[in-house]
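Write out the 3D structure for:
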Amino acid sequence: MTIEIITPEKTIFKGKVSLVQFPGSSGSFEVLEGHAPMVASLKAGIIKLKDLENKITTIEIQGGTVEVEDNHVLVLAD
């Protein structure tokens, strides 16, 4: 699946991943390939990305929104 993490200033990350963990407003959650469409709010915390070679990348955010649809994940981060 593809993911884009965007702030008002710039695109922080864009690429293909196999798994993403989010700091959701109601608790952390994961998104895998084939996930059902959804929109969720995010609190301040760390987004963990696992790429196709199992390398882990972490990105700190101050909150935001995530949208998942058709194996595309869009994060609008603060």
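The chain has one domain: 2-77.
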